[in-house]
Amino acid sequence: MSEVNASSRRYNSLRRKEQASATRGAVLAAARELFVGDGYRSTTVNAIARRAGVAVDTVYAAIGRKPDLLREVVESAISGTGQAVPAEQRDYVFRVREAKMAREKISIYAHALALIQPRLAPVYVALRDAAGTDRGCAELWEQISNRRAANMRKFIEDLSLTGELRTDRPSAELADAVWSMNGPEYWVLLVDQRGWTPEQFAGWLTDAWCRLLLADGGR
Question: What is the pTM of this model?
Fold first, then answer.
């Protein structure tokens, strides 16, 4: 009897976790659609709840208030999962660090961006626009921007270990150059506005960064 009860408890626990995960996913999807389509300021928690098909209290319990929702939408867009994933734990970061040559590292990262930006750029632009009128959004914008800059310093440090990085410019300057080009705004300009394909975008970044960052100009 005890084994049956234990098995039943495990099954019920697993089912609750699956239901909670599904609810969280529905709430995040609804919040993303509304933040991108209607803007942060015009979107209400009530509207998100209606779009997700849940009660308002469920939204609060699953994620939190509207600023929490926007943060989670941004983080999930960056990670490609329902949860925030630190940069050092992302698959493409592992592959960048395992690569031996600088050009390979750059290519891996550029192609990873081409996969990330289609889901991130619309949300990032919504956050940028909201940052102009909402203090919480402005703080989130600054946090993510600074975190991205710090990650680019690590990327440049990793490239320097190959011995191929140019040494005539400060490493902080090189990191800032990459930071300026890996932002969703750059994707929006070239892909959304100029009609570039993701593959074209990735190839351009690879070529441009090799020319800008490597001592031999990527030859």
Answer: 0.82
